[in-house]
Design brief:
Blueprint lengths: L2 E5 L4 E4 L2 E4 L7 E3 L10 E13 L13 E3 L4 E4 L10 E3 L6 E3 L9 E5 L15 E4 L9 E3 L1 H7 L8 E5 L1
Parallel strand pairs: 1-13, 4-5, 5-6, 11-12
Antiparallel strand pairs: 1-2, 2-3, 5-10, 5-13, 7-8, 7-9, 10-11
Length: 167
């Protein structure tokens, strides 16, 4: 098991000898038990890397060792605590609130799904906590890096690896 370390205070992410700048949520970092839907906080803790979602035509699929798939036009992620599929991938449209994985910016060209609040999900304690591409501004609670850094790091990641987020 390899560990991606995120130092929220320093805005730094490290993986072995590799170091890069990263951004976190607009609400800063918070204890995972205090994480709430929509608070903009990045949850502190150790989260398994569940898999990778790639936007067709926007990200290469070569040399990825984690489970991965292409994002489809109707892919979304449930962020509605009343939805039985809360904090799970879903198909759009949906009767409950959900985030589209096809965005107008490039942030979701590469998504590494983190295992926060997913075993099992607890309604309202945060959904769609991802490791994705930076857009030069704080995230809604995710960890983000520049495209070149993500593309350098992605082939090094393996099943069983984790992201360790610290204040």
């Amino acid at each position: 098991m390899n560990v991606i370390r995120v130092d929220c205070a320093a805005g730094q992410l490290s993986f072995g000898d590799l170091m890069m700048d990263c951004t976190i949520g607009r609400g800063g970092a918070c204890v995972a038990a205090d994480k709430r839907e929509g608070d903009g906080c990045t949850p502190i803790g150790r989260w398994p890397l569940r898999g990778v979602l790639l936007r067709p035509g926007k990200a290469p699929a070569c040399n990825i060792h984690l489970p991965w798939r292409w994002i489809r036009a109707d892919d979304g992620w449930s962020d509605d605590g009343a939805d039985p599929a809360y904090n799970r991938p879903i198909r759009l449209p949906r009767a409950f609130s959900a985030e589209s994985l096809i965005r107008s910016d490039d942030a979701y060209d590469v998504i590494v799904v983190l295992g926060h609040n997913d075993a099992p999900p607890v309604a309202g304690q945060g959904s769609a906590i991802f490791f994705h591409l930076s857009e030069g501004r704080p995230t809604a609670g995710c960890v983000a890096v520049e495209r070149a850094d993500m593309l350098r790091l992605l082939p090094m990641l393996r099943p069983g690896d984790v992201m360790d987020i610290r204040p």
